[in-house]
Specification:
eight-stranded mixed beta sheet, globular, six-stranded parallel beta sheet, binds cytidine-5'-triphosphate, alpha/beta, Rossmann fold, 22 strands, 23% strand, 2 domains
């Protein structure tokens, strides 16, 4: 299976928090994404959820006891510590965080944490106030210094009725952090990649805009795939999708705002991938007040060109453009590579079914500056993103004098 989780063996450790019920959804989504999920439940977790819940979702053994010698799972935890690609503790209670930080090993989860060399992700969940406790913070810092990825917690309402920091992150966020953890030493580690996404909107008046069709899904897939290969990602977006975790997200509306944000982010970056559908024209002047129907039977809006962001981007950054065309795809796309001096263009025939706007799949041809064509089949957008990033990674390593920056922190 494709995607960041296909065929990866992950230990999911669940400690005793009411948020343990959310871990069932997380285990299910990881399994659906192709991961082999071995669940470890502490005694505290067993007060909230049952092994059967997780066995049913993962179709794999669930480990609850270190010392039950009649169970084949009793010895299994040693093998798990050796064979996993990652250990994820979600939810991680204050007590479990303390145990792992201090190296106390007295339950299947803390033993696995001590025994494994696999990367560790900790998703805290605790009542408001506990997260602010100095002891908890000190242990979290210890884990972070040792290389653990701390995912959350989020802010909001707790089961106790209190509000504050301490909520377990949502499943989609946990999946994002898990994918990032698995790929953090990937081929884009140490690189900074700027990605734009979504259609910009250009104001006519305070209510109305001119915009381009674009869901932003292709750009978000590229940003997530780059993150999952270890890159530091800046996503400049005008799309209405939720913020992906593990990257800097800059929200903009107009082409002018996108230009400023993209050019800012390009300073020191390695690559720019412009998946955004930037408006080529904007109203010459946005009206301060709402246009009223009574004003006139007909309305004319003067349009002026917006700045071309790709053409302004620094030349030492690998520059990738998109060309959405409804006819003469290859000729138009080739002309754009030359005109905008691009390293690569992603040419996209918008008349192909299940490709382009809003779809989960895309059908594209990659064209480089020498005119070489790579005609990809219809693929999920994440897979298109991975194929595109293969090319970007190759372009980056072919550049002399620009090596990845060592040891950046997320
Ligand atoms: N782009 C940009 N700045 C703009 C407009 C577009 O950087 N003001 C980028 C897009 O993000 C995309 C590529 O340029 O990567 C598309 O090129 P463009 O020439 O704008 O495409 P079309 O608008 O389709 O061009 P044309 O109208 O000539 O077909």
């Amino acid at each position: 299976m494709s995607g960041p989780f296909g065929g990866r063996r992950i230990a999911l450790g669940i400690s005793g928090s009411i948020a343990a019920y959310k871990a069932a959804d997380f285990a299910s989504k990881l399994t659906q994404a192709g991961a082999l999920v071995d669940v470890l439940l502490t005694k505290g977790a067993l007060e909230f959820v049952t092994p059967l819940t997780f066995r049913s979702l993962t179709h794999r053994p669930v480990i609850t006891d270190l010392f039950d010698i009649n169970s084949p799972d009793a010895v299994e935890h040693v093998a798990i510590a050796r064979d996993i690609a990652a250990l994820i503790v979600a939810p991680a209670t204050a007590q479990m965080i303390t145990k792992v930080a201090l190296g106390i090993a007295d339950d299947p989860l803390s033993v696995t944490a001590l025994a494994t060399n696999a990367p560790l992700m900790v998703a805290p969940a605790m009542d408001a106030g506990m997260w602010d406790n100095a002891a908890v913070r000190a242990h979290i810092e210890t884990l972070r210094e040792r290389g653990a990825l701390i995912a959350g917690p989020g802010r909001g309402r707790m089961a106790s009725g209190l509000h504050g920091w301490g909520r377990l992150l949502e499943t989609a966020e946990l999946l994002g952090y898990a994918a990032m953890l698995l790929g953090r030493h990937g081929d884009l580690a140490g690189r900074t990649i700027v990605v734009s996404a979504g259609g910009t909107s250009e104001a006519i008046d305070p209510v109305r805009v001119i915009t381009n069709r674009s869901s932003g899904k292709m750009g978000y897939a590229i940003a997530e795939a780059a993150r999952n290969r270890g890159a530091r990602v800046v996503l400049v977006t005008s799309a209405g999708l939720p913020d992906p975790v593990g990257m800097l997200v800059v929200r903009v509306e107009s082409a002018a705002q996108m230009r400023d944000a993209v050019l800012d982010a390009c300073d020191g970056a390695d690559a720019l991938i412009m998946a955004a559908a930037v408006a080529d024209y904007r109203p010459a002047a946005a009206r301060a007040d709402k246009v009223k129907k009574e004003e006139a039977q007909e309305l004319r809006i003067d349009l002026v060109r917006t700045p071309d962001i790709l053409s302004e981007a620094p030349r030492d950054v690998v520059r990738v453009g998109f060309a959405a065309e409804s006819r003469d795809l290859l000729a138009n796309a080739r002309a754009k590579v030359a005109k905008k001096q691009l390293d690569l263009i992603v040419a996209n025939d918008i008349t192909v079914p299940n490709a382009g706007f809003g779809a989960e799949t895309n059908k594209v041809t990659l064209i480089d500056r020498d005119g070489n064509l790579d005609d990809l089949p219809l693929l999920p957008k994440y897979d298109v993103a991975m194929r595109l990033l293969d090319r970007v990674a190759a372009l980056l390593s072919a550049r002399v004098g620009k090596r990845p920056h060592a040891g950046h922190a997320h």
